[in-house]
Amino acid sequence: MDINLYYQEKGNKEPFILLHGNGEDGSYFQNQIDYFSDRYRVIALDTRGHGKSPRGTGPFTIKQFSRDLYDFMAGLEISDAVILGFSDGANIAMEFAMKYPDMVKALILNGGNLNPKGVKRAIQIPIIIGYKIAKRFALQSPAAKKNAEMLGLMVNEPNIAPNELSKITAPTLVICGRRDMIKESHTKQIAENISNAKLSIIKGNHFIANKRYVTFNKEVEGFLQTVCKL
């Protein structure tokens, strides 16, 4: 790995890794870090080029972020972990769980998508416009270049075929808000293509882990108690 990822850590039991969404950092999960730290070693990391993690020279792609996670876990000598991913973090988690199934003890996918068409058009159209504008000015402005990379993740990625999800072997919870920016049919498609996945749709929008954390945490906790006996 060409970089060292920044991370926050609390607790000292079984590893529980949190992956944030596009343009965010690990602090998004402040209500999960505290809540789960008495039963887990909660690790909230900043993805490459996000938060306090450096951009590095590698590609700015979901697949690269998945490889970064592998290197991160290997560096900390973590052989397997519970992984919770939100939005792009869920997309990273899917890529990781497909490629390294033995390293995932349980998987929580919150607001992820298989491809850009999974995002509701009303949300996606402004993102596409912003991406085109940022790309146009990327050579003149470092800020525009960074913005183009961030928006590019949502315009061009991820690219996961539904049948690829069969590679995921860990017990999986697919969870989203009733008013999520991801189409509900798309979220259901993800759950249907992962063996024995549980689907949970709760009140709220895309940001349920942050805005409706009491309900969100109870759903995650109940799932983990069932599949991990913890």
Describe the model.
This protein has 2 domains: 7-115 and 161-228, Alpha/Beta hydrolase fold, catalytic domain (Rossmann fold); 118-157. It has 8 helices and 7 strands. It has helices at 30-36, 62-75, 88-99, 121-137, 142-156, 184-192, 208-211, 213-228; strands at residues 7-10, 14-19, 40-45, 81-86, 104-110, 172-177, 198-202. It has a 7-stranded mixed beta sheet with strand order 1-3-2-4-5-6-7, sandwiched between helices. Helix 4 runs antiparallel to helix 5 (142-156). The chain starts with 6 loop residues before the first strand and ends with a helix. The mean pLDDT is 97.
Task: Record the SSE blueprint.
Elements lengths: L6 E4 L3 E6 L10 H7 L3 E6 L16 H14 L5 E6 L1 H12 L4 E7 L10 H17 L4 H15 L15 E6 L6 H9 L5 E5 L5 H4 L1 H16 L2
Parallel strand pairs: 2-3, 2-4, 4-5, 5-6, 6-7
Antiparallel strand pairs: 1-3
Helix and strand pattern:
EEHEHEHEHHEHEHH
Number of helices: 8
Unreliable runs:
none
CATH superfamily of the largest domain: Alpha/Beta hydrolase fold, catalytic domain
In CATH, the topology of the largest domain is named: Rossmann fold
Principal-axes geometry comes out as globular
What portion of residues belong to β-strands? 15-25%
The domain count comes to 2
Percent in helix: 40-55%
Could you say which structural class the secondary elements and strand pairing correspond to?
Answer: alpha/beta
List the keywords.
alpha/beta, single chain, 41% helix, 230 residues, seven-stranded mixed beta sheet, 2 domains, Rossmann fold
